[in-house]
Design brief:
The complex is a heterodimer of chains A (308) and B (212). Chain A contains 11 helices and 12 strands. By secondary structure, chain A is of the alpha+beta class. Chain A has 3 domains: 111 residues, Beta-Lactamase (2-Layer Sandwich), CATH 3.30.450.20; 34 residues; 149 residues, Reverse transcriptase/Diguanylate cyclase domain (Alpha-Beta Plaits), CATH 3.30.70. In chain A, strands 2-1-5-4-3 form a 5-stranded antiparallel β-sheet. In chain A, strands 7-8-6-11-12 form a 5-stranded mixed β-sheet, with helices on both faces. In chain A, strands 9-10 form a two-stranded antiparallel sheet. The radius of gyration of chain A is 41 Å and the shape is rod-shaped. Chain B has one domain: CheC-like (Chemotaxis protein chec, 3-Layer(aba) Sandwich). Chain B contains 5 helices and 7 strands. In chain B, strands 1, 2, 3, 4, 5, 6 and 7 form a 7-stranded antiparallel β-sheet that branches. In chain B, helix 1 crosses helix 3 and helix 1 packs across helix 5. The radius of gyration of chain B is 17 Å and the shape is globular. Classes of the chains: A alpha+beta (308), B alpha+beta (212).
């Protein structure tokens, strides 16, 4: 029977050590020889901590004491105890007490989890890489979105975004029965400034114009660079034309409407045309058309602003 | 047993002593400062009323639960379940393994075999210490299994934990603090009537000794 038990222990794919109560090694199976390169003949009869010095740790010894005295079963995970076994491979260790009428033994089982841990480490690495790639992709998506919808020079909404937003605000106005203002603006004498002072100054002026419009408009208004030196301001939820008048007067009456150069100052002024839903149209194209016409009338009449 | 009675205080003290030993062992193993507290204990009698176990879990347990279960026998028979919210366990495991704690986006409720092994070990240490020290102090012998670890939602948890053969439930509220991260959990111990009576009898002896 004893030989049969030894055969069984030697054929399992787990390291098995049986120690006596005094921690003298009693049995050391073939797999244990394979794990540790220590022959059973060298291990048996010697103290466990002499044969496996890596187990000679305070908490391990305390645990062994508890197992022998109190019958605990202990489990040491390979992940938390990489230094318990002095090997390249990783083992979960289970320790339990075996008792018969006269004798007490301790059974140590060593289960190889190296493959699983390597797989999990690899998977975690892939997950982290995928996470980082996803993060980069999201950043790039944001950049592409910005390029698609925002004017690169001024940072404000561009023509593409204008049509999306304008349609949305128009539908809101239709639903709520409210007014929607469209203000078409261009910079007075921009072509001649650009031709005289060059594109760099021209760009500075465009940027300044965008900032002036942002500062002069309400928080709920949307300032858009429609193209070249043309801007549109969407004015949602206006009570009546006087709201538009207030915004228009803020735009042209600001004292800071000046672009400074080395030896010259350029004072900016704007021509503005305003149309209002529903009076002036029920779709965006009509409203823009009328606001644009109104702006040309303002220019021709040397007015700041004209209402369609 | 009235909650304000001295017996509850003895029971809480016994469990806190054993929790302290578990914390010391875990601190040594992980190399981190770990504190375990058992601020409250309740005994429930299934035979007297319809008990909803989820009423005794901390309010924050609204999602999945990670449960380590061990069975014990000899002078006290029953099952002990250590329950923590699954969403907190990822961070907890990474702290125990001294791994980098990733931000929330990176965490999911998919636990690897390694995660389960870590929880099995920690659950084993905590439950062994609490039940083991209790059995030592009360001079009772116990034999235990290694924990099984599973993840449940609240419905499957109630079905899994409900054991018709055990009429009494001992509920311990436990707070686990590691590296300033605090996790609240619950230990639910199913006890047969004679086991509870044996436990209470031993507590009576301690109480009597206190007044001598």
């Amino acid at each position: 029977m004893y030989n049969c038990c030894c055969e069984v222990l030697n054929s399992v794919n787990e390291g098995i050590i049986i120690v006596k109560e005094n921690l003298e090694v009693y049995s050391w199976n073939s797999y244990m020889e394979y794990i540790t390169n220590i022959k059973g003949s060298s291990a048996i009869g010697n103290n466990l901590y002499t044969v496996l010095p890596s187990l000679n740790k305070n908490y391990f010894k305390k645990t062994v004491h508890n197992i022998l005295n109190d019958g605990y079963t202990m489990f040491f995970s390979a992940a938390m105890h990489r230094d318990l076994m002095d090997t390249e491979e990783n083992y979960n260790i289970k320790i339990s007490k075996i008792q018969d009428k006269n004798n007490t033994f301790m059974l140590l089982e060593f289960h190889n989890v190296t493959g699983q841990m390597a797989q999990i480490k690899q998977l975690k690495k892939y997950i982290k890489e995928l996470y980082n790639v996803n993060k980069e992709l999201k950043k790039k998506e944001k950049v592409i979105e910005n390029l698609a919808y925002y004017d690169q020079l001024t940072g404000i909404a561009n023509r593409t975004l204008f049509y999306i937003l304008a349609e949305k605000y128009l539908q809101n106005a239709k639903r709520n029965g409210s007014l929607l203002g469209i203000m078409f603006i261009d910079i007075d004498k921009f072509k001649s400034i650009n031709d005289t002072y060059g594109h760099q100054i021209g760009d500075k002026i465009i940027i300044k114009a965008a900032n002036i419009l942002k500062e002069a408009t309400r928080e709920s208004d949307i300032v858009v660079r429609y193209g070249g030196d043309e801007f549109i301001v969407i004015l949602p939820n206006i009570k009546d034309i006087s709201d538009c008048k207030i915004v228009a007067s803020k735009i042209n009456n600001r004292t800071g409407n000046i672009v400074y150069m080395k030896d010259k100052e350029i004072k900016l002024s704007f021509s503005m045309g305003i149309s209002i839903y529903p009076n002036d149209g029920d779709n965006i194209d009509k409203l823009i058309g009328k606001a644009d016409k109104a702006m040309y009338i303002a220019k021709r009449n040397d007015e700041d602003v004209h209402y369609y | 047993m009235n909650k304000s009675s001295f017996k509850y205080d003895i029971l809480k003290e016994v469990f806190n002593i054993s929790a302290g030993k578990a914390a010391n062992l875990l601190s040594e193993i992980t190399g981190k400062k770990i504190i375990l507290k058992i601020p409250d204990v309740t005994i429930l009698d299934r035979t007297k009323s319809n008990i909803e176990l989820t009423d005794y879990l901390p309010i924050k347990f609204s999602g999945a639960l990670m449960v380590s279960t061990i069975s014990f026998k000899e002078n006290l028979a029953g099952k002990a379940n250590l329950i923590f919210p699954a969403e907190k366990m990822k961070t907890f495991i990474q702290l125990c393994l001294n791994e980098e704690v990733y931000d929330e986006d990176n965490l999911s409720l998919d636990f690897t075999d390694i995660d389960f092994d870590v929880i099995r070990e920690i659950g084993n240490i905590i439950l062994n210490c609490i039940l083991g020290e209790t059995s030592n102090l009360l001079d009772i012998k116990l034999q235990y299994s290694l924990p099984e670890v599973k993840v449940y939602n609240q419905i499957t948890f109630t079905k899994a934990i409900y054991e018709k053969e055990y009429q009494h439930i001992l509920v311990l509220f436990i707070t686990f603090i590691i590296d300033n991260t605090e996790i609240e959990g619950t230990i639910i111990v199913d006890l047969a009537l004679q086991s509870l009576n044996e436990l209470l009898r031993k507590i009576d002896l301690i109480e009597a000794d206190t007044y001598v």
